[in-house]
Specification:
Length: 470
Amino acid sequence: MDKRKRRVRHGMVKERVRILVVGGGYVGMYTALRLQRKLSAELRRGEAEITVVTPDPYMTYQPFLPEAAAGSISPRHVVVPLRRVLGRCRVIVGEAESIDHARRTAAVTTLATGEARTGARPLRYDELVLAPGSVSRALPVPGLAEHGIGFKTVEEAIGLRNHVIEQMDIASSTRDPEIRDAALTFVFVGGGYAGVEALGELEDMARYAARYYHNVRPEDMKWVLVEATGRILPEVGVELGRYTLTELRRRNIDVRLETRLDSCADRVAVLSDGARFPTRTVVWTAGVKPHPVLAATDLPLTARGRLRCTPQLRVEGVPHAWAAGDAAAVPDVTADPPGTLCAPHAQHALRQARVLGDNLVHSLRGEPLETYAHKYAGSVASLGFHQGVAQVYGRRLKGYPAWFMHRAYHLSRVPTFNRKARVLAEWTLSGLFKREIVSLGSLEHPRAEFELAAGGKHSQDPPENPKGSS
């Protein structure tokens, strides 16, 4: 940055500083929120500018995705609109394609550049916060790109809910045993939080929904969890992992450890142990990888593609660049042995964002920086309604107490009082009334019916699945 923009007078930023936040997830939103609070006077005087570049105009609270998929929470209450929360920031809906930090420039594409076909436009900055998060780590499994379903976004969660209910509709309306068997077979790949919680909630929802189908029973459905290692939910410890395995199998869920998905071409899931499952549903939750934009920067990366960071959340050896969350390899100063990195999960991301925001302000004002230090408190996981596991500060909980702890913890962490109140109200109402089991898959193709009426291509060539649950 130009030296004149770094001058400080009476502890305040003298010249205008342009701060670019890449990403609108946990770290991006919370860092921008912290900055707009700490720099409120500078923003008011025009001495600072905060720009947030994000592919979506909202932050998704991902721990609630399984409950949204199961219908316990409305999708709109799982997301936080960024423009409403970040009223003093400039929010750009788009993607940072590459970053040239030496020149303090990011190449950004937006909906407008896409319409005009002008390509990425340069966006200049003085301070950079990289928080793009992670993306699904898809392996070159035959058929996965064509038939797999992810579980990282609210759209995927709601699409999966619609898809599961629609498969039950298909099974209920056919006499063909092969079609019925494929429709009622659900394969989940990945035994971490995302896979176990998504499977637990959706199996619980489908079992409840089956009472409204005259010819579909819970035992007709086949739920399969495929995990490449020898255990599931490693985050909650060995004992609770074994309990979770026993609980899932007690619910007739086929859990296959040390097994891989070799293929799902032609809608047949082929596993490494030789098992074959004709299925219309393969949910891929087998890990994540750093966002591709990190590879398109001139910043130092680890062997796994994450940004090398200091305990103060600076990018190592690079001035005016900061990072946290999934994109950052941050040393865990509370862990043994030395050199251990903070795990890429929400517990660290939320706390790192606050320290990052504070340190960026300290840097602008010439003040000492704080060191990020947080000892891992534990983990909570839901396995369906009134079922869960939790390990908090060394204490292990199972069943209803763990499920209650899961809800209480995440209710306290979901951003804004507005969202907390709405989620609590929905939970209260769901305890008083029956579940909603309506599929709204047609939302994914809102123009299909009009095209049919207007004599468009769909009138002659209807889609394979007109409700949108492929």
